[in-house]
Amino acid sequence: MHLTMAFAQLYSMLLSLLFALCSPSVLSQTSSNITPGNSLIAGEDGSLWASPSAEFAFGFKQIEENGFLLAIWFNKIPEQTIVWSVDGQNLAPKGSKVELTSNAWFRLVDPNGKQLWDASLSRTRVVAYAAMLDSGNFVLCGQDSHNLWQSFEQPTDTILPGQVLNQPAQLVARYLPTNYSRGRFLFNLQPDGNLLLYTTFFPTDLVNFAYWSTQAFGTGFSLIFNLSGYIILRADNGTIISTISSNTLSTQNFYQRAVLDYDGVFRHYIYPKNSGSSTGSWSTFSVTPSNICLRVNGVMGSGACGFNSYCTFDGTNKSCQCPNGYSFIDPYDVMKGCKQDFVSQSCDQTSREIDLFDFLEIPNMDWPFSDSEQFELVSEDWCKQECLADCFCSSVIFKNGYCWKKKQPLSNGRVDPSIRGKALIKIRKDNATLILKDNNKDNDRSQLIIIGSTLLSSSVFLNLVLLVVACLVAYRCGRSNPKGDQAVQLTSTMNLRSFTYEELWKGTKGFTEELGRGAFSIVYKGFLPNTPGNLIAVKKLNMVKGSEKEFEAEVSAIGRTHHRNLVQLLGFCNEGEDRLLVYEFMSRGTLAKFLFKDQRPTWYQRVDIAIGIAKGLLYLHEDCSTQIIHCDIKPQNILLDDAYTARISDFGLAKLLKIDQTVTTTAIRGTKGYVAIEWFKNKPITIKVDVYSFGVVLLELICCRKNFDMNVEDEHKMVLIDWVYDCFHYGKLDLLVEDDEEAQIYMKKVEEYVKIGLWCIQEDPSGRPTMKQVVQMLEGFMDVSNPPYLSSFTSQR
């Protein structure tokens, strides 16, 4: 026991020494001094003060047509990400000036000379000069070069390597990604030493609910983001109280920042410095808390998302969504919540509206702290009937014989596999969106029938004729959408939205902007203001033999999946002869487009993409309620989002396995070059066919070339897997990356990844690893042995 404690103390001392050596006080900063009398004017070209290396800049960033933000930003990357700013609530108009005056004031004034902000310095403290440092810190210094004021001590929502926050200190999330006014979440290092994340009673900064905490208490604590990439809470005696993020990537090779994002998640981001101006991007290294949707449980307030909405989290990104029958109050600010799009149930005792309502089922969902009543040892049907009999009941949560009736507005909504229960949301049967709108033709028709019936009530015969006409109209409407019941059934069993053809026609401007096409479908770009991100990809299936089966396969396979490395299916259209699927839009396009162009992605990006694809397949193979074999993994079916995160798409060829099933038989599927050997031998198909296809894609990622290339001069290099094995067998792996200077730095990792790829494409499926083993090998948690000899597959391709 004593020996263990001694080792623990020694370990803590060594870590403290490491952090001390990497603290900002040890490393000197260079700067270009800004002397009194200098100024910057909003709207003028080149109106900035750059750090000596030009990695950071201080100046005005235009946010609106006549609105400028005084800010500090990363200056060498295309995004020019802002890390500090002044009063985002009140933007400075064009012509505003920030100046270091001759009498040593540092202030921001509008074009009329009215002061908008100053550094709040004592008049007895004279500023000799200002400087934008390479650390991202802007400082005002006295005659003795001592800092009188610095941006590192006045943080907004971001901290940078080398920055220290002493208690008390706080970060305030911005309102929206492009709105820099104060938002709804706080990061607070309290006077007692505890570090917490809070929701607030917005629009005030009063704290509401603490959804994450280090549970540390005491005096003399500091939050340190050191130059080794670690974010720690440390006591003054050097003891590490808590590690918030432990990055092993050097700040010399990666830009880094930690941000309390507008959605309440504290994220540690990294950006490769040597990526080049066109291929780099911020990647998320860590998130705190691990799942914000489950952590926010405040009795007061809406929760992690707005009222009547629900939250999902894929391990990196939070998404707020409305259930069917509801829509966002403001699609551009989803935290405002969702409004009901149908007429509520009447509380009039003479009204018989019970039969007009039904329930939309969403599994693994809850709305804590919106309860009106609770019942035990009841059935699901009893729970539903109790809600139907209560005009104030908007939904119920049912779990293991427990029934919770919910009242509006609903708060703390979340969907997560750990919840187990289900939400039953009460909606009108007539497509869940019956609202009296001027443009609702069906509603207008109903109104006309009612008016006509009243006018002709004196004639029994005419009323009878009207009744017959109404029945014929209803019959025709029912025949016009023979799949209507199926659509309702699909949306009630999955969290999908049923779109009308007219909605998608308008959203895609008549299906004009094509993103891609396949054997049975064409994908178009669209815009819908009430969907996450607003941009969508609409897959229009051609009505040929097999497309109906493909439609059902995609809806069934994707509708119940949710993972950061899968493209999310938002909804579908099953109207008449039209079959359309609506996906979230992936701004960076396909991996094929990204990988096989002239300027290759960085080694870090390729590794990140490979791991992302592997994790997506692992989810399909092992974490879905119904095991899914994708059957067509290739770069064209891997899409990339804004952060170049890999997202698996196109489940049209997916093969579903039942719980007690491990193999299946089916006609050959997939794409030439990525198809496993067992397809050609008419053998039973298992999840190992996806492992094979992944192996080919992994080798393509390593070498930045297609699996078959007729344009190469050496015919031995035409088939990639044969060439890779030859290079591995003869110890010449450097030939695979001979034109890739970055990859040559990581030759040990290149060798490991080549071996993983060769293991994946073994002819015998049983010799291939599972995707779980692949992920462990890619992330370095499992040793990779040398693969056995490979047969030549060229003749089979």
UniProtKB/TrEMBL annotation:
It is an enzyme of class 2 (transferase). Its EC number is 2.7.11.1. One of its GO terms (molecular function) is carbohydrate binding. Its main location: membrane. The chain crosses the membrane at residues 448-475. It comes from the Eukaryota. Gene3D superfamilies: Bulb-type lectin domain (2.90.10.10), Phosphorylase Kinase, domain 1 (3.30.200.20), Transferase(Phosphotransferase) domain 1 (1.10.510.10). It is found in: Membrane. It is a single-pass type I membrane protein. Keywords: ATP-binding, Disulfide bond, EGF-like domain, Glycoprotein, Kinase, Lectin, Membrane, Nucleotide-binding, Receptor, Serine/threonine-protein kinase, Signal, Transferase, Transmembrane, Transmembrane helix. ATP binds at residue 540. Residues 31-153 form the Bulb-type lectin domain. SMART domains: B_lectin, S_TKc. Residues 509-782 form the Protein kinase domain. Pfam families: B_lectin (PF01453), Pkinase (PF00069). One of its GO terms (cellular component) is membrane. Residues 1-28 form the signal peptide. It catalyses: L-seryl-[protein] + ATP = O-phospho-L-seryl-[protein] + ADP + H(+); L-threonyl-[protein] + ATP = O-phospho-L-threonyl-[protein] + ADP + H(+). Belongs to the protein kinase superfamily. Ser/Thr protein kinase family. This is Receptor-like serine/threonine-protein kinase. The lineage of its organism: Eukaryota, Viridiplantae, Streptophyta, Embryophyta, Tracheophyta.
